[in-house]
Amino acid sequence: MPNQSPRVLLIHHSLEWLKSTRALLRERGFYAVATRKLSIALELQSRYRPEIIITTIKFTRSKGQEVIDALHRQERKASILVIYNETTAEQMQELVAGSYFNSFSLPIEPEILISHVNQAWLHYKEKNSLFQYLEEYQDRLHDQLDWLAWKTHNKHEFKVKYSQALMANIRNTILQGMGLGSLITRMDLLQLKMKKDGDSYIVPQKDIDNIILSTQNVHKWLGNMEKINQALERHYELTEISSEQFSEEIINSVHAIEKFRAIKNHKINIADLKLDSPIIGNTDAIGLCIRELAINAFKFSPEASSIDIVKFESPLIVLIGVLNDILPMGGGITGVPDVYASQLYEPFYKLNNIYDERFFDEDFSMGIGLTIVQGIIQQMGGQIFISEITDHSSKVSQLRRVMVQLIFKKNSEQSKNKAKAS
Known about the structure:
The protein has helices at 15-27, 38-48, 65-74, 89-92, 110-156, 161-175, 180-193, 205-233, 243-256, 258-263, 283-299, 349-352, 369-379, 412-421; strands spanning 7-11, 31-35, 52-56, 79-84, 102-105, 195-197, 200-202, 239-241, 267-270, 279-281, 306-313, 317-325, 383-391, 399-409. By secondary structure, it is α/β, with parallel strands linked by helices. The strands form four sheets. A five-stranded parallel beta sheet has the order 2-1-3-4-5, sandwiched between helices. It has a five-stranded mixed beta sheet with strand order 9-11-12-14-13, covered by helices on one side. It has a two-stranded antiparallel sheet with strand order 6-7. It starts with 6 loop residues before the first strand and ends with a helix.
């Protein structure tokens, strides 16, 4: 059956040769179809999607490279074997290197022909294994992201826009910089540069090195997907957090992302974080939120600017603010419109589609770190908002800044007592 055996398309003027070769191939486990006309060959190619094509290169209306190009337009992955004779030998020299796998002249011994076909089949599998992996990976990625977006949306009762923004952020990140887009582009360039040398191809070492690097980055994407999956599904146990635990967790979280701070040489100012009374939350969750918000501030603020972490406290809540200067966007939207104050997943990637490769190694380097933070804060019964403010403390001029506000609830009993006392 055609879906169980390697498929071979035979194209030649000799009906006798087509019949004998088709019978030979079927005897050796291949599924073979044959025709004498290029137009019918293109129809058969569209129907059966053969992995191997054995063809002559001279027809009434088409010849040489035109034939190869026509076959590639239908299916660029197929391995093409070219048949030539004395009349078409000169046209062989005009064929573009790399546009076909191999060639042979007629007559040819059956075992030699089978050897050519087996080599073409092996070439097809090796050539397309990476493309097949990428296609399957993209399908799995799309399904998983759809599921994660729906599950998180349902669990936290986010708006319908949540899933759309999540998908847009990840798709944008994957297709930029060092992701899948880079790997696919480099593979296409390699096909144009490779030169045939007998049964092998000669390719520039730099191109191979770039492909290896891109492949390593694809593996990093896969690792990040697992981190994203774990973060979205994790349930945090809530406990009472003392003033010492709270301030220590925030300071340790800032120290943990030193390599990202150094990228643009930011200065971090941390205010007094001492609390009058404990809050309810989870130290791991708070640490993750601070790391993600600080990294976000690094990415979307100017070089060598200041990041401020401040605290405000009332008898019922504690508010942690992360402030950063606004990085001007060339052609994009600068700052944060009021409409996005409670939509953490919107302001940065959705509005401007920015991707900075220098932050490639962060845990959630797909544009959804803020979305994860939003879900975590809701688990702890808190709230999170983002807004643009005007900082009047500058001696030079008023500064436009972004402020992310994390609101934590205090222990209910102690909060009530504090409120009564005040």
